[in-house]
Amino acid sequence: MAVYFFYGDEDYNIELELNKMRSELNPDFLSMSYQVLDNPDYQTLIQYLRTPPMMFGDTLIIINAESYFLGNRNVFDDSEIDDIEDAIKNNTDGLNIVFVVKLPRDEGKKLDSRRKLYKILSKTNMKEFPTFKAYKTAEISAWIKSHGNSKDIIFKDDAIDLLIEHIGNNLRQYDAEMDKLKLLAYPEKTITKKMVEEICISNQDLFSFTELIMKGDKDKALLEFKKLLDKKHPLELLSAIQTMLRKWIILKVKSSLGNAELSKIVGMHEFAVKQTLQKLRNTQVSELVKLKENLFEAEYKIKSAESVDMISEVECAIIR
Questions:
Q1: Which of 47, 72, 100, 116 has the greatest count of CB atoms below 10 A from its CB?
Q2: Shared-domain flag, residues 115 and 10
């Protein structure tokens, strides 16, 4: 029926598009009509490209094809490429093939357009899924509204502004927060700024907590930690803090690049980058790294069941 080529470094939007296509298949025959292949060799690939149509509806085959493009050599020889091109051109009705290449996020990698397979797939339904730039808030805002509609919720403009300020361009995190906000708003459908403030941990909350640790005021830091636990599970909190610390370490190490370039690297608004650097001016990179290591160790112990008391484990990591 159709051949598609999806690529880009925003893997979450790629997943949304693939899930949408999968939802259109007959659910009663999904085990036979839906297949995912990871970088198949020539024989396997050509077999699936020539799969005969099914009697019970469309078939969807996802081909994760990173090794076809990101390696240093061509995976297929010329005769194999010719066979692949012929199979794609003569794709049968009822058979949907999607080649997918998820590029590493924030590394600026591009596909080699000189490769024969790229030239073949560029003639199909090709679509790029790039990461939203953190400073292009209008694009992120439009995505939030659209994704919110898919979950049957509506966002007030100031609620969107606050979400963007806290989350930046992390679409997967927006999705997780939307699920919580939908439950909070039920039976209503409108998400307000107050709801966002109530359920989402802000960067300022995390900053205040970490700043107290850096100042050595660990008693107040532990009290702040307990307040944060009212909003998040300990593991969620650990993840959020470690993500923030990773960004802070990058900002400190690469501060000479300038705010605009740093904004692109860490996915924060340029103004937020400037504010963060000002607040971190008296903080050493080694302190941030040590705290991140302590929290990572705590997370490992919790997930591996070495620790039975999650909260105490995190508290110990804070005061070490």
A1: 100
A2: yes
